[in-house]
Specification:
The complex is a heterotrimer of chains A (435), B (233) and C (336).
Chain A: H1 2-24, H2 27-54, H3 61-76, H4 81-110, H5 115-146, H6 164-184, H7 189-209, H8 211-214, H9 230-235, H10 237-246, H11 250-282, H12 284-294, H13 296-301, H14 306-332, H15 342-356, H16 361-389, H17 398-405, H18 410-425
Helix pairs in contact in A: 1-2, 1-16, 2-11, 2-14, 2-15, 2-16, 3-6, 3-7, 3-14, 4-5, 6-14, 11-12, 15-16, 15-18, 16-18
Chain B: E1 3-10, E2 18-25, E3 30-34, H1 41-49, E4 54-61, E5 64-65, H2 71-76, E6 79-82, H3 94-101, H4 109-119, H5 121-125, H6 136-148, E7 154-158, H7 166-181, E8 185-189, H8 193-199, E9 202-207, E10 210-216, H9 217-222, H10 224-230
Parallel strand pairs in B: 3-8, 3-9, 6-7, 7-8
Antiparallel strand pairs in B: 1-2, 1-4, 4-5, 9-10
Chain C: H1 2-39, H2 46-66, H3 77-105, H4 110-132, E1 145-147, H5 149-156, E2 164-165, H6 166-188, H7 190-200, H8 202-207, H9 212-237, H10 244-259, H11 264-282, H12 286-292, H13 311-325
Antiparallel strand pairs in C: 1-2
Classes of the chains: A mainly alpha (435), B alpha/beta (233), C mainly alpha (336).
């Protein structure tokens, strides 16, 4: 009962904080924060599965989230027929060559050819594939990117409902996680962290530079929404009448309704994932995972296939992160590769999980909520603090101006302090893992 | 008595490994602790060196009660210890191992190095070689040499012949005798019970953390019960 | 003649920038490897330490410049480098005292150290952005070139040439000097040997009377000093950008791991391996081949393995290959 009480207390405190923001700033802001809290919590749930259940240090959260974002673009953006006719075939052939080349590589790897042959064949395959990509891919890409570069210059997507991309984002992230996990999961934990950090950087580089796919740094704007647009609401008669009946201001209410719709969708996802995670944790599978985490050697001695289990969990966690990434891009309505920064995406999510309580799903929820809340509110708070501290200086003092412009960056310091303090004084987090 | 560990009682956590165990050594003599596996031989040595907290018992060394000192402080007061494993710096040369051994004893460094080289001539030849590249027997010589660099009055060796080829064991024991001749007390835990007792002045046979037999080495060797139970007939 | 022209091109676009960047990576990787060897964890805050050192140096440089101090043809920042090193070492000292010493006493798992280092990284990143802001700072006020391409061409009469930037010469020379000092320190001095002993076998080092706190603090101070050098030299050579240092973690860690983590020689070699391969793989060889091949075979494409945008991916690919094929690195790692 004590647990339940503790949980209700912490969660209701958070609810009060959101309500407080609602009254103090505005309900729009409060809901905006809360929607991102939900997405953060989704990511935290994914990382918790990896870090908490299995002790896997995935420093590539950013990359998987970005893959989710990419899937939102590919699924929802309408196809650009001109570029497809210009270079679609070339790209398709390239994809086939890549798949063929990888398959050939795997076949050679698994075959019983001697090492000497393999040493010759592998570079040969790589060179041939690269050559083909250069000969067929490069001109196709050039043609695609040359088409109306200011407005288009990419292939577009399938024009399907964006909500589909949440699942697809999970699947894409899962597939990439499988490939990465195959290579890196045997590594020591800190090497794994470095390797995944690198993978994430590479993924972001690809998204930034392959303009034919993502428009690169030119961003993809105007992704369709799964919920109504404010302007449509404001123009529909039933909505206008509804607002008149209750006396709500039209414009503000429309944006609140939109945010509430997102909130509903996201809450459904978070709730489902949370329940599934809890069931998995309490199942024999979850118990086995924790047994492996606590004593890998003895688990291996008992005949558990540690690497295969780790691979499962790596895929699962990454898929959830991918899903969250797709949700985020859906909410923002645009895909901007440059916003993917490891501090914001990877390490902040770690902070969420660790502060909430590694291995505890309730902890991930509240960690995601609280840390995002602080991340956002740190800005006004930091500004207030800096203004207070520098108030003896004159308005035009360059130091004061400098510090006030940089005050927003205090959130990084706060994250660091928070992480260090929790790690030191409450290493089990807000909700310690149940044993 | 130069070292006398009296009525030691202790173990790890709840379990008791040493049960009223007493060990003593005189200057210039060799004392050997033997016994079956799990008898607490190494634990007894660790307790004497301060790596295990005792629940009861005293350790009197050179006339002083050192029961409360940390291992490092015991090294300062004149104890030298050669652990069973990880007893050398493998990534450093022979010479560097000796220098680190004499880290706190800088003034006698070159004198001590030449004494170690006199005792183990092979180390002088290989002084610039990395210890990781040496054979098992040579590594043990480095390990003993390193411990000697602090000018200890008591040298404790935890199974110095473990992992050393039988031919080298004899040579190593001869070196240990010559160390004892210089007036250093030697306390040794050994698996090679027969060979060890042959060179021992005193032997301590431990069984389940208790002193089962304590006598002159030669007497233990001729004791029928000891031979039957511990020396294979 | 054609061969010399090709060589001049490669020197200008691969060798000189490669050895410069490699030196910067080597200095960073040395710090990472020292921390790993002595404290046994991967310090994710190292990139931010480099940034911190560079920031302090820039602040003092500005202060100095406002009083009219300059270093003639050399960058003013070099005058203030020692002060920056002092501050960074002090910062490292505080980090050790307030963060890591606790986990060391508790003998925590290396992964706890790693998480703590991420906390430090966050805090330091915030501090830097708070003080100097997130934007680029150019603080190289010395003479840009020792000799430039045009002068080289005029001097040699070649069609192609290479220029030597002051920052390149400073970086490479400083790295050679620093590495020499560090290796002499580690191999010849009593303190250096005690550090190596501690890294090799902590328990035995303790039995030999080596003071662990001294060794650890010294390691932090050295790592902080090296980080400052790396950060300042990188900033002088390119530009100071606060966010670049998190990205540099990857090539730095790759360098340390490729060379054999915990092994200083490995870190230096790894730094050059990573830097040179980045440039070799992303260089467009068309002009070079035009000189070397007969006219009829002159290539039409860029002759580039990988687009320059994927420079960072190269270090990652090398890292993965090394981790799979030879996880201990080129020089067997683990201890110094």
């Amino acid at each position: 009962m004590n647990d339940v009480f503790r949980r209700s207390l912490v969660f209701s405190t958070f609810a009060v904080a959101i309500v407080f923001i609602g009254f103090l700033q505005s309900w729009n802001v409060a809901l905006g924060i809360f929607n991102l809290c939900l997405i953060s919590a989704t990511m935290a749930l994914g990382v918790n599965i990896q870090l908490g259940y299995a002790g896997i240090f995935n420093a590539g959260v950013m990359g998987f989230a970005a893959l989710g974002g990419l899937s939102a673009v590919i699924i929802s953006y309408k196809p650009v027929s001109e570029t497809i006719s210009l270079g679609g075939l070339g790209i398709l052939i390239c994809i086939l060559i890549l798949i063929l080349g990888s398959a050939l590589g795997v076949i050679v790897y698994k075959s019983n050819l001697s090492q000497a042959y393999k040493k010759i064949l592998f570079p040969l395959i790589i060179i041939v594939v690269l050559l083909c990509l250069n000969l067929i891919g490069a001109p196709a890409v050039e043609r695609i990117e040359a088409f109306e570069p200011a407005a288009s210059g990419f292939l577009g997507g399938f024009g399907l409902p964006i909500i589909l991309s949440w699942m697809v984002g999970g699947v894409i992230a899962g597939i990439v996680a499988y490939l990465i996990g195959k290579i890196t999961l045997g590594l020591r934990s800190d090497y794994l962290a470095i390797a995944t950090l690198g993978i994430a950087e590479v993924i972001i580089y690809i998204l930034k530079n392959e303009d034919w796919l993502t428009r690169g740094v030119k961003n993809v704007n105007g992704l369709p929404r799964p919920v109504p647009y404010e302007i449509d609401l404001q123009e529909s008669t039933w909505f206008i009448e509804l607002c008149q009946i209750f006396g709500f201001p039209l414009v503000e209410t429309s944006s609140i309704v939109v945010k509430l719709s997102y909130c509903f969708l996201f809450s459904m996802v978070v709730l489902t994932l949370f329940i599934l995670s809890e069931v998995a944790l309490k199942s024999p599978w979850g118990r086995m995972m924790r047994a492996i985490r606590d004593n890998e050697i003895s688990a291996r001695a008992m005949g558990k296939n540690v690497k295969a289990r780790h691979l499962e969990i790596f895929i699962l966690g990454s898929a959830i992160i991918g899903l969250a990434g797709a949700m985020l891009t859906t909410l923002e309505g645009q895909f901007t590769p440059t916003t993917y920064q490891p501090l914001r995406f990877t390490f902040t999510v770690w902070v969420m999980v660790i502060i909430g309580g590694t291995g505890n799903n309730y902890g991930s929820l509240i960690g995601g909520f609280l840390v995002w809340f602080l991340w956002v509110e740190a800005e006004p708070l930091g500004l207030y603090l800096v203004e207070l501290i520098t108030s003896p200086l004159s308005e035009t003092n360059p130091l004061r101006i400098q510090l006030i412009t940089n005050a927003a960056h205090m959130r990084y310091m706060m994250m660091g302090l928070l992480l260090l303090l929790v790690l030191r004084f409450a290493p089990k987090g807000i909700f310690p893992e149940d044993r | 008595m130069f070292l006398s560990a009296e009525n030691m009682l202790g173990g790890y956590g709840e379990t008791t490994i040493l049960n009223d165990c007493s060990i003593c050594v005189k200057k210039g003599e060799i004392a050997v602790i033997v016994g079956p596996n799990g008898a607490g031989k190494s634990t007894a040595m660790k307790a004497i060196f301060g790596m295990l907290d005792l629940r009861a018992g005293n350790i009197i060394f050179d006339g002083k009660n050192i029961s409360d000192l940390k291992p490092q402080e015991r090294v300062k007061s004149g104890m030298g210890f050669v652990p069973q494993t990880h007893n050398v710096f493998t990534s450093m040369t022979v010479m560097e191992n000796l220098e680190i051994g004499g880290f706190t004893n800088q003034e006698n460094l070159s004198k001590n190095v030449s004494e170690v080289f006199k005792l183990f001539p092979v180390l002088e030849e290989k002084q610039k070689q990395l210890v990781g590249e040496l054979s098992g027997g040579q590594r043990q010589q480095v390990a003993v040499g390193r411990a000697l660099m602090t000018n200890p009055k008591l040298l404790m060796l935890d199974e110095p012949t473990a992992g050393v080829s039988p031919l080298v064991v004899k040579e190593l024991f001869e070196k240990i005798i010559s160390i004892a001749r210089t007036g250093i007390a030697i306390l040794m835990v050994e698996q090679n019970a027969r060979q060890a007792l042959e060179i021992a002045d005193n032997g301590f046979v431990l069984v389940q953390g208790e002193n089962k037999y304590t006598d002159k080495g030669s007497k233990l060797l001729s004791n029928k019960e000891v031979r039957k139970a511990f020396l294979g007939g | 003649m054609d061969f010399l022209n090709a060589l001049a091109l490669i020197t200008n676009y691969i060798l000189l920038p490669g050895f410069t960047y490699g030196s910067q990576l080597a200095l960073g990787a040395l710090g990472v490897t020292l921390i790993y060897a002595v404290l046994r964890f991967s310090n994710f805050a190292h990139g931010e330490l480099m940034s911190f050192g560079a920031m302090i140096c820039i602040l003092f440089t500005w202060l100095g410049q406002s009083y009219g101090i300059n270093f003639g043809v050399l960058p003013t920042a070099l005058i203030f480098l020692p002060i920056a090193i002092g501050f960074t070492a002090l910062y490292c000292f505080f980090i050790e005292k307030f963060v890591f010493s606790y986990y060391r006493r508790k003998k925590s798992d290396p992964i706890i150290f790693l998480i703590a280092s991420i906390g430090v990284m966050f805090f330091t990143a915030g501090l830097i952005r708070f003080v100097i802001g997130p934007s680029d700072q150019n603080f190289n006020d010395g003479v840009r070139f020792i000799f430039n391409v045009r002068e080289f061409k005029a001097f040699t009469g070649l069609e192609e040439g290479f220029g030597l930037k002051t920052s390149q010469a400073i970086t490479i020379l400083t790295t050679i000097i620093l590495c020499s000092i560090l290796f002499v320190f580690l191999n010849k001095t009593r303190t250096g040997k005690s550090m190596r002993a501690f890294s090799d076998n902590e328990d035995l080092a303790l039995l030999s009377g080596i003071d662990p706190n001294k060794v650890v603090l010294l390691t932090w101070v050295i790592a902080g000093g090296l980080a400052t050098f790396a950060g300042v030299l990188y900033g002088l050579d390119k530009i100071y950008k606060p966010f670049i240092f998190l990205q540099m973690l990857l090539p730095i860690f790759s360098a340390a791991i490729v060379g054999g983590v915990g092994n200083p020689i490995g870190a230096v070699v790894g730094g050059y391996v990573i830097a040179l391969s980045e440039l070799f793989v992303t260089f467009a060889y068309r002009k070079v081949l035009a000189y070397l091949l007969p006219e009829s075979m002159e290539p039409s494409g860029m002759m580039q393995f990988l687009s320059t945008d994927y420079k960072f991916a190269v270090s990652f690919i090398i890292l993965v290959i090394v981790l799979i094929v030879r996880p201990t690195g080129i020089f067997r790692g683990k201890t110094i």
